Amino acid sequence: MKKQTRKLAMTLVVALSLGSFGNMAAFGQGVQSLRGAGIVGNDPAPASFRVAPDGPPIPRDYVQQPPLIPHKIEGYEVTKNFNKCMDCHSWSRYQEFKATKVSLTHFKDRDGGELSNISPRRYFCMQCHIPQTDAKPLIDNTFRRAEGLR
Amino acid sequence: MTQDNNKDRGRFWVRLRRIALGGLGLAFVAGIVFWGGFNTVMEMTNQESFCTSCHEMKENVFEEYRNTIHYQNRTGVRATCPDCHVPKEWGPKIVRKIQASNEVWHHLFGSIDTPEKFDAKRMQLAQNEWQRMKANDSRECRNCHNFEYFDYSVQGRRSNAAHQAGLADDKTCIDCHKGIAHSLPPIEQEIGAGREAVAPDVFHPPAATKPQ
């Protein structure tokens, strides 16, 4: 009985692995991504989109969302020498430019110490904050803004 | 006898006049050739291909410049190195060209012939150029951008406000538009550890107080 069960289990494992590996190629070719492109091929070339013109702050869709950038950032230098974003959004400069000031949550260094300006670990703004283009969503979806933000 | 004497004297003057005229003509032609040659050589050194023929320029500033709007843009109108770095007017151009002969020395010494050496000197080089443009009221910018012809109605919200406020404060282009064609040197922004950097009031000069 024990032996039989073990044999059965082994057969099952072999059959399953053979089956799945055998069908792998067909599996890859048959599946389409939600965006319409095949999994294996290249993505279709992006169409040309315009960055939304300079405008007021864009409302958030969920509370933890990093605020979006409501202006063009083409050619902005963010290097170890200079951070163009902080040239307007730092606390020492936002009033002059009527810009949004950078959040206080960015002032904490990795040891939990409070700094008087952004922490170096928050230096690369565009890791989280991005501008918007006039591109339409790639697939229809039923996403709705979080309840507290409607 | 007296007639012969008179004849000789006449011939002498004719000959002298011929020599003088010929000499003048020769000097005139030589002048054209010399001036033309001088100007041709000077204009040759006023081309982007000449500027980027040394790797100091080609591998550092020119590479950075290729990503900016003055190199490539939607209408294809572009500025070359001398459009910004060499005055168009003859007098200032000669002065700048004589100053630039110093750069030949530094090319021979190899002062900035690697990206590392260039970056080490970037602060000094950038500030030299900022001072030059500040002193001449951004003359080379104004060869193309004339603020008297600004149409504020088609400028963006922020540029519209900034241009009008800046011009009212007697600011000049370079006061705000630094690092538009090349990467910037370290600018002090009080982020992270301290370092040698350009002071904030050099990068953003305070508004000049106008005499009342």
Automatic annotation (TrEMBL), chain A:
<keyword id="KW-0479">Metal-binding</keyword>
<keyword id="KW-0574">Periplasm</keyword>
<keyword id="KW-0249">Electron transport</keyword>
<dbReference type="InterPro" id="IPR005591">
    <property type="entry name" value="NapB"/>
</dbReference>
<dbReference type="Pfam" id="PF03892">
    <property type="entry name" value="NapB"/>
</dbReference>
<keyword id="KW-0349">Heme</keyword>
<comment type="function">
    <text>Electron transfer subunit of the periplasmic nitrate reductase complex NapAB.</text>
</comment>
<dbReference type="InterPro" id="IPR036280">
    <property type="entry name" value="Multihaem_cyt_sf"/>
</dbReference>
<comment type="similarity">
    <text>Belongs to the NapB family.</text>
</comment>
<comment type="subunit">
    <text>Component of the periplasmic nitrate reductase NapAB complex composed of NapA and NapB.</text>
</comment>
<keyword id="KW-0813">Transport</keyword>
<keyword id="KW-0732">Signal</keyword>
<keyword id="KW-0408">Iron</keyword>
<feature type="signal peptide">
    <location>
        <begin position="1"/>
        <end position="25"/>
    </location>
</feature>
<protein>
    <recommendedName>
        <fullName>Periplasmic nitrate reductase, electron transfer subunit</fullName>
    </recommendedName>
</protein>
Automatic annotation (TrEMBL), chain B:
<keyword id="KW-1133">Transmembrane helix</keyword>
<keyword id="KW-0813">Transport</keyword>
<keyword id="KW-0812">Transmembrane</keyword>
<keyword id="KW-0249">Electron transport</keyword>
<comment type="similarity">
    <text>Belongs to the NapC/NirT/NrfH family.</text>
</comment>
<feature type="transmembrane region" description="Helical">
    <location>
        <begin position="20"/>
        <end position="38"/>
    </location>
</feature>
<keyword id="KW-0349">Heme</keyword>
<dbReference type="Pfam" id="PF03264">
    <property type="entry name" value="Cytochrom_NNT"/>
</dbReference>
<keyword id="KW-1003">Cell membrane</keyword>
<dbReference type="InterPro" id="IPR038266">
    <property type="entry name" value="NapC/NirT_cytc_sf"/>
</dbReference>
<feature type="region of interest" description="Disordered">
    <location>
        <begin position="193"/>
        <end position="212"/>
    </location>
</feature>
<keyword id="KW-0408">Iron</keyword>
<dbReference type="InterPro" id="IPR051174">
    <property type="entry name" value="Cytochrome_c-type_ET"/>
</dbReference>
<protein>
    <recommendedName>
        <fullName>Cytochrome c-type protein</fullName>
    </recommendedName>
</protein>
<dbReference type="InterPro" id="IPR005126">
    <property type="entry name" value="NapC/NirT_cyt_c_N"/>
</dbReference>
<keyword id="KW-0479">Metal-binding</keyword>
<dbReference type="InterPro" id="IPR024717">
    <property type="entry name" value="NapC/NirT/NrfH"/>
</dbReference>
<feature type="domain" description="NapC/NirT cytochrome c N-terminal">
    <location>
        <begin position="24"/>
        <end position="185"/>
    </location>
</feature>
<dbReference type="InterPro" id="IPR036280">
    <property type="entry name" value="Multihaem_cyt_sf"/>
</dbReference>
<keyword id="KW-0472">Membrane</keyword>
